[in-house]
Design brief:
Length: 138
């Protein structure tokens, strides 16, 4: 189970690194030529990776993932003990959170990171698509 969770989390970064790598390789292929068409076309892969990352919560949750996964601010757990705080004298409780709740919140965080990274990749890819061929004129 842990392997699939780590693999799923790493997939976000693999999409980003792969799309940027394609652009870097195509930039080296076009280096010194009169046109940077391969570099310009590689921007489409960057935009595609950005779109995939931006829609991660929808791919994961379906229609209910629109706008990100809902988080109602409530954590589910069980009370395992209580104690008195020596600093201020308050009674405190000790709560043990359920693993499902922790995993759900982790997925929400990954959805947010993927959304921000996807938006950034979409912007960078659009700039590469639109203006990548102008590198030959510099």
């Amino acid at each position: 189970m842990l392997y699939f969770e780590v693999a799923g989390n790493m997939r976000v970064f693999i999409y980003a690194i792969l799309s940027i790598s394609i652009s870097v390789v195509s930039l080296f292929v076009d280096w010194g030529s009169d046109s940077y068409t391969w570099f310009q076309r590689s921007g489409a892969f960057v935009v595609l990776a950005g779109a995939i990352l931006s829609y991660r919560s929808i791919f994961r949750m379906g229609v209910s993932g629109v706008g990100g996964a809902p988080h109602n601010g409530i954590s589910i757990g069980k009370v395992v003990g209580s104690f008195e705080d020596p600093e201020n004298g308050r009674n405190m409780i000790e709560v043990e959170r359920f693993q499902e709740d922790i995993a759900y919140e982790r997925q929400i965080l990954i959805d947010q990171i993927a959304g921000y990274l996807g938006a950034l990749l979409a912007i960078v890819g659009t700039v590469i698509c639109g203006y990548g061929d102008l590198l030959a004129k510099i």
